[in-house]
Each structure stands twice: as C-alpha cells, then as structure tokens.
Amino acid sequence: MPNNPQPRRTPVDDVDRAIIRALADNARMPNNALAEAVGIAPSTCLARVRALQERGIIRGFRAELDPAAIGLPLQAMISVRLRAHTREQNESFRSTAPDLPGVLAVFHMAGSDDYLLHVGVAGPEGLRDFVVDHLTTHPAVAQTRTNLIFEQIPGRRYLAPER
C-alpha cells in the first residue's frame, strides 16, 4: 500500500498575513484596494488570494448577519453532553446539529461537554422549544445546559499573528 503523507504546507509569509488581516476586516474589499493596502501589484495580490484559497487557508467569504435584524433576537450557548462517546452517537449528533433551526454555529469540544451550540431564536418560548424538540429528544443527547447571551462582542477573527 503506498504511503500518502499529508501535503506539505507552505508557510504563511508577511504578505499573506497582511492579506488575511485586510480580508478579515473587510472580505468585500476589491482586489485593487487590497493590493494597495498590502503594498503589492494587483496581479500578485489576486494570485496570492487564490493561492490562500487553494491551500485551504481562506475557506470562504461570508456575510456577517445581525441575528436580531432577521428575527432571532435571543441568543444562547447550549452545552451538550452525549450519552456515550461512540463514533455512531457522535456522528449522529454531529450530522444533524448544524441543520437544526436557529443553529448559528456548532463546536465539537474537549472537556466535560461534547458540543457547544450557538443558537438564535425569536424568544424564550422558541429557546425552550428548541431544547425540548431538538436536543432532549435526540437519542444521543444525555444532558444540555443553556446560557443566555446578553451581548456578543466581536473579536479579531483568525488573524495571522504579527511577527
């Protein structure tokens, strides 16, 4: 059987870091403006961004939405503990959780809880219904713990460290 080693990752250099920081601040920045901001030619910039995408460093460009503005003003973080740590139960929950109504993000965790779900709902009844209808009835779920979010304070997401 042939040995298939992991592909070798090319290191991220200072120009790549500058591109990543600029796109993290504004992913809709036109290529010409991005090139000017990082001090390289537009053609070089376009090639760099494409290379970052091909290498899996840039995984996509998304719109950041205000949950309250789209009818989901109540947000919560819900910790989920599975009944058993079998591959089947883990995959069962992992494959359904992202598609549940109101789920904004799913995190697979180490520690006392197995998953953390960031959810947005219309109000307290919607949160109760989400937990009762989708979590406590899931055969893999043993326990949940819900924490309300008062305010979300954005951080500087995934920025390559400065040198």
Describe the structure.
This protein is of the alpha+beta class and about 160 residues long. The relative contact order is 0.16. α1 packs across α2 and α2 packs across α3. A hairpin with a 6-residue loop joins β2 and β3 (about 115-120). The model is unreliable at about 1-5 (pLDDT under 50). The protein has a 4-stranded antiparallel beta sheet. The longest helix is centred in the N-terminal third of the chain and has 13 residues, at about 40-55. Helix content is about 35%, strand content about 20%. InterPro entries: ArsR-like_HTH, AsnC-type_HTH_dom, Dimeric_a/b-barrel, Tscrpt_reg_AsnC-like, Tscrpt_reg_AsnC/Lrp_C, WH-like_DNA-bd_sf, WH_DNA-bd_sf.
Which properties best describe this structure?
disordered N terminus, 163 residues, 4 strands, alpha+beta, 4-stranded antiparallel β-sheet
Contiguous uncertain segments of 5+ residues: 1-6
- Looking across the biggest beta sheet, what order are the strands in? 2-3-1-4
Beta-strand percent range:
15-25%
Averaged pLDDT, please?
91
Q: For the report, how would you describe the main beta sheet? A: 4 strands, antiparallel
How would you summarize the topology of this molecule?
Blueprint (H helix, E strand, L loop, with lengths): L13 H12 L5 H8 L3 H13 L19 E9 L4 H10 L6 E6 L6 E7 L2 H12 L5 E9 L14
Antiparallel strand pairs: 1-3, 1-4, 2-3
Helix pairs in contact: 1-2, 2-3
